């Protein structure tokens, strides 16, 4: 007898689209009005980068835009109520800006840093050697020193003289002189080129040419140096002693430019971390009424460990919350506000670089053009010097982004045991608040020309805006 098979249930077809996660190009969803919005945002961002090349300039530009959009100084407000738009500048080098919603016990904080690697001056910088007037620099933050030679530099100065504080920039306008650090020729560079990249250009060799023409009718030995001092005195009232207490920085003189035949990317100095600074500012300026308190936190000194009176490790956030709590007559304590707050540490991450894939784990790296990067942790080695967000918080955030179709991706900062990098997330998390690193990926981090994708920048802005108003 032939057995009759019983009826079997049909098995469901496995859907790879439903089960497998794929990071896809965010450009695929861009068309029409969105494409125009991306280009408009990129244009405004490039303008900001060109105006804000130092931490002081960054705060100055932000403060101006905030005032234009109705934000008022916190110090000038005796009381606070729902709907108020306030800001507080900390010594012109850090800034906090907030919009007060109905639920004033619920704070959404986006924290970015306004400083970038640069060349500062030593206390006694000006000297003459080989008929050249030179300035001796002290580099700020993590740089590859060889990248700073043979490129045009601009000078950004805040100098305190007997006549008062003088603020000026040389090298950014069309007819301005610029400055340069000379390298040696390859004909005589055999020994130099046999050294490691770290040693090819020494820190003490980062000396900037600022003059060659000696002053006339003088018996001084250093007549070229004297000519430079004479020029600075006639132009700005400076004497050499003023340089000791001055804040003078040299940064790349080149402005932001579009990259690629399709103009899809931006190359510019200082995108770490002004990409996140501008995204946070732009988000605040667009938010009409958040549910709780939307706070943009813009701190200094992140590139050197967040130490100092305008840095994330200072009490500037505590002091701001204390003042708001008092003036708004909130019943909860500042400590309770900070513990219950949620935050995004707004900082960039390294994108997968096709020229140097060996520094990354390709399966666990963010890529240009795939959206804002949400990273559970940073640091280095065994997760040292970082804050690791909880799975609950990360899941909540990415589901929020999915709900409004904001393109995001995730990864780690480089291959294990090669190094790493930290953000202000670990300092925000000290209050007990949920914090996670969120920002655009970029190429050539800490170089004189960092590269971002316009679509990632736009998704970063959309992410911060959505987060602060929910």
Question: Overview of this structure, please?
Answer:
The protein is α/β, with parallel strands linked by helices and 470 residues long. 28% of the residues lie in helices and 24% in strands. The chain has 13 helices and 22 strands. It has helices at residues 16-19, 32-51, 55-68, 190-193, 197-200, 223-236, 242-245, 271-286, 316-327, 334-340, 391-403, 425-428, 454-469, and strands at residues 72-73, 85-90, 94-100, 107-113, 118-129, 132-140, 153-161, 164-170, 207-211, 247-252, 257-259, 265-268, 293-299, 342-346, 349-350, 372-375, 379-380, 408-409, 420-421, 434-439, 441-442, 450-453. The strands form five sheets. It has a nine-stranded mixed beta sheet, sandwiched between helices. The longest helix has 20 residues, at 32-51. It is globular, with a radius of gyration of 26 Å. The model has no long low-confidence stretch (mean pLDDT 94).
Topology:
Layout: H1 16-19, H2 32-51, H3 55-68, E1 72-73, E2 85-90, E3 94-100, E4 107-113, E5 118-129, E6 132-140, E7 153-161, E8 164-170, H4 190-193, H5 197-200, E9 207-211, H6 223-236, H7 242-245, E10 247-252, E11 257-259, E12 265-268, H8 271-286, E13 293-299, H9 316-327, H10 334-340, E14 342-346, E15 349-350, E16 372-375, E17 379-380, H11 391-403, E18 408-409, E19 420-421, H12 425-428, E20 434-439, E21 441-442, E22 450-453, H13 454-469
Parallel strand pairs: 1-2, 4-13, 4-14, 14-20, 15-21, 16-18
Antiparallel strand pairs: 2-3, 3-13, 5-6, 5-10, 6-9, 7-8, 7-10, 11-12, 12-22, 16-20, 17-19
